[in-house]
Amino acid sequence: MTETPGKLLRPYFEGGDGAAGPLGPSVESSGHRESMLNLVSLHGSQLAIAYSLLHFAEYVPSKKGDVVTLHFASHTVKLLGRRLDAIYQVIREQRVASILAVDPLRAPAGDGPLVTDIQQVPRASSSE
Known about the structure:
There is one protein chain. The protein has one domain. Strand 5 and strand 6 form a beta hairpin. Helix content is about 10%, strand content about 35%. The chain has 2 helices and 8 strands. Strands 1-7-2-3 form a 4-stranded mixed sheet, with no helix packed on it. Strands 4-5-6-8 form a 4-stranded antiparallel sheet, covered by helices on one side. The protein starts with a helix and ends in a 7-residue tail after the last strand. By secondary structure, the chain is mainly beta. The longest helix has 8 residues.
């Protein structure tokens, strides 16, 4: 039986009852330093990339929605959502194993961060 990515992910600092922890339903981690980051879209496609390839990360808060931009050696990835400051912090510490985009209409109620979309941004060609 194949489970959906959302059922496979455990929230970071998950409570004993399985309820989402402070980082909400979008984040899975053991709490230790991770070597890879797995990004799971709303449709279930996944991209796993080594933290060693992360050149830098940016966090831009906004009333319309927060954006965390991850600049890898071969990819640029944008995480869109709300209250993403805590997710940005654990990415900086390399303590996130997986980030799952969650449909905001199906997300559990709560004040924690929520990633609503994960987008790969095309790289500009070097000839421009």
